[in-house]
């Protein structure tokens, strides 16, 4: 498990497994967001299996599967709502952490500058520089 912190209340990770849940709890996370579609992983790593383990350990679990071609405003709004719950801090995961970083950046565009978002994701190893126009536009309209 390779957790990268983007903000004090949000971190991302590549795919997690059921056996990672105790370490996630020990790290202080209260919510897990799955941004990985079930079609990409075997049943042992699908959302239902991770949800069951997470909830058994007292964690909130939110399933917002994101595909590169299918990312939309509803997904961004759902991610923002899940991040804004009192059950922070939140760990979001996908295949590499990149999609979870992208959807976080888009969700935060109305409360953080594009520079802040890009700096946070760059520091974690995710380059969102190509999203600058979208981040700036979303920041101006929200």
UniProtKB/TrEMBL annotation:
Q: Where is the Beta-lactamase hydrolase-like protein phosphatase-like domain?
A: 2-109
One Pfam assignment: BLH_phosphatase
Q: Name one GO molecular function term.
A: hydrolase activity
What superkingdom does the record give?
A: Bacteria
What name is this protein filed under? Answer: Uncharacterized protein (TIGR01244 family)
Q: Which organism is it from?
A: Yoonia sediminilitoris
Q: What is the lineage of its organism?
A: Bacteria, Pseudomonadati, Pseudomonadota, Alphaproteobacteria, Rhodobacterales
